Amino acid sequence: MILNNIDSNLSLPRRCTKESLQKLLESTITTIKQHLILVLDEIDQIETTIKTSSDIYRLFEMPYLPNSKLILIGIANSLDFTDRLLPRLELKPENKPKVIKFLPYSKEDIISIVKDRLARVQQMYDNCVIIDDRAIMLCASKVASANGDIRKVLDICRRAIEFNEQEAKFNNIDTIKTVNIAQMMKIFNQVNPITNSNLDRNTMPLMQKILLCTVLLCNIEMKIKEISLSKLFEKFSKICKSYSTNVDSESEFVNLCTLIQDNGLIEIKKNKDVRNYKISLKIDEQELKEKLQDETFMADILTNKAYK
After folding, report:
1. Residue 201: in which H helix or E strand, if any?
2. Of 124, 183, 230, 262, which is least surrounded by CB within 10 A?
3. pTM for this structure?
4. How far apart are CA 201 and CA 291, in angstroms?
């Protein structure tokens, strides 16, 4: 696939075998006048797409051909990628790729980045404090101790702010509350199981299971694919009572739907009125059974007359 993409960008002759394409590419990158930069993101995945190690070696040796104009840049999550998959490169030190390590963000780095982002956003809210400093420190500490992924921190902060925005809309309040430690912890705990699990019956939170089954139940009952958020929330609340659980508010229910949407299991079509958001399943009943691995749980919700 990589060779074919290079081929299409260089306008080389079509219908080439792998061997002839290899020779054409080598000839091209050693005779062209300008440098060709090839950037491979998520290069860790290359071991699953290229069947033989010899193909990987050829790719990494191309920049070192005499007169080669190819510059190869690989972006990987694992720091030992070349040592693990390409040990033979050690035999030719001059051909060994230069490794630049970007270390995970520290707690201080994360706090600085979040505060810088918030400073820009706060101008839209008359410079009101959007997230309490202690809440930022809590989130930064937890993520820094795990993997230092700034994307996760920003996602958690975004969800926390959106939750308070939704709550303000429902209550017709012009200003949003400051995200405190308790709210930050709640959002963090909601996001973390999804990020770290395979969405199986042992790790998927109960309310997420109930929500998915509720959407399916509404599909069957109403014979429609898309359900309004208000109707779904009404049915969801009724079912939750049987399991002695529930969300605190409709705005929290929106947040729960968003979490599941991020996993590609449902789709949310937004509307000016939040209550008219349209929710639909992105998987069929069989796929949902495979995700939940709990047919008894599904059957109880789908067949219980009390939920009709």
Report:
1. none
2. 124
3. 0.49
4. 8
